[in-house]
């Protein structure tokens, strides 16, 4: 059931009044959390300036065979992000990139994009026109999602979460249902095509929805140090305000897989690698300098903006990810602040497939039931503006391209 808010300003006023009443020392609690955040940001800045990596990197071979060390796992959970090297062979990634390029060109997608529906999801961000193509069902995308290697990588990431707590089992981390997303094809020399810092997976809902408030129950009770961003309690129950490009599934991690080489300056991903930075953002909105009907600029149906006006101490930690080779994948926690560099100053295309990590739960199963018919018909998935470009595209992935795992991940019955 989606979240419906009839009078947004009054709803914000009401929830802020109640949250402050339940936490009378909200200012003191915020300053305590802010001090810890500033310490963590300073540490990231020092590491970055010293040339040390601030985002953990794990070889896929460790996941597949050797095992990931406890130290590496602790660092991933602290940062809320991870790069996994060589999930696919570089040759495979380049072949997929070539095939997607032909898919886009032969089906004249660029002409169709001139008439694309506007989802407005990034409409309030300072930079809001990423070079993202509304295709979901090319054969490479279908093949990558159902691959054994990427499935194994995402299961590893899912197991970083506490899937059972509060006397309940929240999800099955061994399941990775498909959330069909788009691709990025960013040509060299492109400018003003980035995204300013933001979070996905909920904006005003984080304060207004009962289940979201339960996710952050330790924060709003003042015991913010007990908050565990990887505790899944209440997460699959959280409700979003419907809007094109607002994700209706519970994603443990957002992510993408590199199809080309790309690094800093190539219009790549930037992260603020602090898994619990949402503590600061949630408490910031309750402070007395924020208008009573405002949540630091949060708007329904939009990405949650991270703004210099309200969140300046956090922004110093914004860091471009290291160089990604074709076949590498990056994942970041659903609460981690991220952005995309405005300019691509590199020499070649900066191309990725957006493939995050999901889990088996009732919320995600319900979405699969709506998404599967879109796959079969080649239509746009339910969460996105309904362009339906691919209905008659040559080279589109179909049921014939699915493995048994692929059918299961799409929620389709197995073939006898």
Task: Give a written overview of the molecule.
- The protein is an alpha+beta fold and 416 residues long.
- It is built from 15 helices and 15 strands.
- A hairpin with a 2-residue loop joins strand 4 (164-165) and strand 5 (168-169).
- The two termini are 34 Å apart.
- The model has no long low-confidence stretch (mean pLDDT 92).
Specify Rg, calculated over alpha carbons: 21 Å
Query: Helical proportion?
Result: 25-40%
- Main CATH class: Mainly Beta
The first-to-last residue Cα distance is 34 Å
Major beta sheet summary: 8 strands, mixed
Low-confidence stretches: none
CATH fold category name: Jelly Rolls
Overall pLDDT, averaged? Answer: 92
CATH architecture: Sandwich
Count of the domains: 1
Q: Rough shape?
A: globular
| CATH homologous superfamily descriptor | B-lactam Antibiotic, Isopenicillin N Synthase, Chain
- Strand portion: 5-15%
Question: What is the H/E string?
Answer: HHEHHEHHEHHEEEEHHHEEHEHEEEEEHH
Structure classification: alpha+beta
Helix count from the secondary structure assignment? 15
Overall strand count: 15
Offer a concise description of the structure:
This protein is α+β, with helices and mostly antiparallel strands.
Summarize the topology:
Blueprint: H1 8-22, H2 26-49, E1 57-59, H3 60-66, H4 70-79, E2 81-85, H5 90-106, H6 109-113, E3 132-133, H7 139-146, H8 148-158, E4 164-165, E5 168-169, E6 183-186, E7 195-199, H9 205-208, H10 210-215, H11 217-220, E8 251-258, E9 269-271, H12 278-284, E10 304-305, H13 308-315, E11 319-320, E12 329-333, E13 338-340, E14 350-354, E15 357-358, H14 362-377, H15 404-409
Helix pairs in contact: 2-12
């Amino acid at each position: 059931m989606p979240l419906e808010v009839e009078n947004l300003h009054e709803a914000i006023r009401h929830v802020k009044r109640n949250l402050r009443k339940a936490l009378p020392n909200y200012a003191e609690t915020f300053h305590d959390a802010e001090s810890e955040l500033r310490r963590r940001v300073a540490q990231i800045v020092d590491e970055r300036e010293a040339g040390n990596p601030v985002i953990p990197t794990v070889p896929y071979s460790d996941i597949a065979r050797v095992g990931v060390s406890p130290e590496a796992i602790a660092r991933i959970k602290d940062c809320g992000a991870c790069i996994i090297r060589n999930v696919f062979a570089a040759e495979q990634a380049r072949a997929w990139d070539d095939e997607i390029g032909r898919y886009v060109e032969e089906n004249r997608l660029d002409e169709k994009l001139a008439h694309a529906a506007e989802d407005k999801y990034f409409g309030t961000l300072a930079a809001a026109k990423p070079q993202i193509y509304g295709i979901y069902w090319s054969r490479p995308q279908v093949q990558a999602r159902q691959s054994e290697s990427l499935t194994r990588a995402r299961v590893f990431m899912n197991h970083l979460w506490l899937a059972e707590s509060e006397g309940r089992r929240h999800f099955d981390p061994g399941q990775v249902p498909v959330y069909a997303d788009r691709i990025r094809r960013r040509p060299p020399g492109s400018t003003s095509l980035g995204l300013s810092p933001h979070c996905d997976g909920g904006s005003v809902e984080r304060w207004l929805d009962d289940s979201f408030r339960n996710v952050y129950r330790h924060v709003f009770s003042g015991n913010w140090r007990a908050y565990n961003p990887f505790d899944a309690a209440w997460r699959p129950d959280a409700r979003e305000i419907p809007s094109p490009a607002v994700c209706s599934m519970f994603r443990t991690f957002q992510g993408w897989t590199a199809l080309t080489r790309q690094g800093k300056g190539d219009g790549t991903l930037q992260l603020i690698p602090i898994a619990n930075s949402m503590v600061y953002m949630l408490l910031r909105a309750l402070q007395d300098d924020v208008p009573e009907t405002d949540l630091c600029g949060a708007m329904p149906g939009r990405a949650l903006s991270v703004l210099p006006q309200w969140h300046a101490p956090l922004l110093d930690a914004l860091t471009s990810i290291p160089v990604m080779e074709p076949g590498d994948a990056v994942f970041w926690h659903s609460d981690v602040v991220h952005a995309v560099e405005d300019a691509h100053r590199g020499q070649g295309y900066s191309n990725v497939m957006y493939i995050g990590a999901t889990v088996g739960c009732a919320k995600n199963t319900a979405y699969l039931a709506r998404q599967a018919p879109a796959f079969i018909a080649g239509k746009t998935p339910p969460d996105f503006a309904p362009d339906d470009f691919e209905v008659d595209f040559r080279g589109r992935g179909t049921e014939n391209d699915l493995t048994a795992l692929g059918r299961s991940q799409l929620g389709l019955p197995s073939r006898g």
